Amino acid sequence: MSNATGGSVLGRALRPRKESDMTSTGGLHWRPRGILQWIGAILVFLFIVAWAALSLLPMAWMFTSAFTPSSALVKMPPQVSVKNFSLANFKDLLKKAPLLPRWFLNTAFIASVATVANLIFDTLAGYAFAKMDFPGRDIIFWVILSTMMIPSQVTLVPMFLLVNKLGWYDSYAAILVPGMCQTFGIFMMKQFIQTLPADMEDAARVDGCSELGIWWRIILPLCKPGMAVLGISVFMGQWKSFLWPLIVLKTERKFLLEQGLTTLQQQFFTDYGVLMSGAAFAAIPMIIVFFFFQRYLIEGFTVGDVLKG
Amino acid sequence: MVDGLARIKQDPEPHKTNKVRSVLKLLYKKRWAYYFIAPATILFCIFTVIPVIRSFILAFQEFRLMGNVWVGLDNFKYVLTDPVFHKAMRNTALYTVIMVPQGVLKALVLASILRNLPEAMQTFFRGAYYLPGVASAVVISMVWKWIYDPNFGLFNLILGKFGFGPYPWLTSPKTSLTSIMLMGILTAPGYYIILYLAAMKKIPRELYEVADIDGATPFSKWWNVTLPLLKPTTLYITITSIIGSFQIFTSAYVMTQGGPGYSTMTVVYLIYNTAFRDFEFGLASAQAIVLAAIIVFISIFNFRAFSTDVQY
Hints:
The complex is a heterodimer.
Chain A: H1 9-24, H2 34-66, H3 70-73, H4 88-96, H5 100-131, H6 137-146, H7 153-165, H8 173-176, H9 183-194, H10 199-206, H11 211-222, H12 224-240, H13 243-248, H14 257-267, H15 272-301, H16 305-308
Helix pairs in contact in A: 2-15, 4-15, 5-9, 5-12, 9-12, 10-11, 12-15, 14-15
Chain B: H1 2-10, H2 14-29, H3 31-58, E1 61-62, E2 69-70, H4 74-81, H5 83-115, H6 119-130, H7 137-147, H8 154-161, H9 176-186, H10 190-201, H11 205-213, H12 218-229, H13 231-246, H14 250-255, H15 267-276, H16 281-306
Antiparallel strand pairs in B: 1-2
């Protein structure tokens, strides 16, 4: 079932947001009149173009530096041109940091497992909170939600002590188990599942389908767009996580990418060609994810809307 | 009749047992709901509720291998008189005071401009502004450290062409914190722009049409219609960015290691050092609680200041 099929239930679940987009565009656009306003409009346009260029500049500089040999970078002025394109930095990087591919795989593994776990546990809880009526539902939900306000540093030390006691220090359990479900994920899935029509569940229940069966056969397939949003946010969040892995992982072979990069930086702190190729190595997967799933990502951001209410 | 009396005698409190039974029956009937929320609730208790409580206990203790010792308010007294904590707090507060208003303002202005563009262009600019945000803080900080390099960095190179510099940027205690802030100032707040655009699209079109009939100028429409209706979004963005700014850690860790001196030491960095370099867990918990108290206090203050009723 793809979300392009407009007439399906999926389409119906997604449509309200789209309709509101349609009704409110147009009519409020400002159109320049007269030469002065046109000049103003062009200046404003140049301003936003310039700022877009400025925002992309660090990324561009990272890739340029990654593909230019270090020797050309530290010349005065640096010899950055297409002619100097080379993969020398990447070769150098792999020689100097033989563990880098390993860190990459570790990170991909951790991020994937965290994503799958969140997709299961957040949808389970989200489904119960959205569609089931049971004693204590609202209290439990609001208690879970309210702790989003507590800054994570408060739990840092006790979590570290707990992880040590459980014997999870320097193991992936310390990262994976606490991250198996996330408050924002539960909240998001609850919001999404609430928009789904109840008739299919009811029909399945009448046919004698178990609750777990309803979740698996009906809710999950209908949830695909919501799960895509959740999955991407969890994956990217986990890929970028830094402080907690830095605290709980000590064996260099087990490091995650971000943490590994900072150790590289401490070792080769002026070899910017190598460092930038490492940074590019870590950033490329995120950029790919962004280009493929941009729509879902942006949709996911606006889920937070309800919190603002 | 007699039968009935006998039954009542056997079961002196029929209402109560029925109630208990019916509650149990209800819970049993709803058991699947509890199974479904069980993993989330159990994980949440173990990894959030208990650690938060433990943190408050630790803050009043000194951590020893043979067992913790109660020290009363000593940790808090130490934290509040510690010059390094003061320095870290000043840096963090200065960072927040500068970064939050400019970030919110930038997002509001850029989103308001983008709002007037055709849909396709909006999508393009939204992507361009957001793209740098997909790279992690570690990657971004590494790139900026290279841009700020005093000898071969991009900034000194460009400024050198115009006869300025070279500036020390991150390597001097006078400019290091400013440089970290400049990095944020030059970056477009892609995420907040997206939030503002989404909120702007939700404003009913009729309001603008009414304003048009009244002969309102574009600016007065923006000031009198758009801005007030964006208040909830502005509140949300302000609070999240205050919380984010108070928790700044990665850029200081990667770019300056808190130095030179303590010029870029931040509160979270100090908590990290206290806990995981010095293993003063009690002290670190006290520092974390002071930070949390400040964050919660500011959030509540913000809610109060902004929470005038918004009506469509």
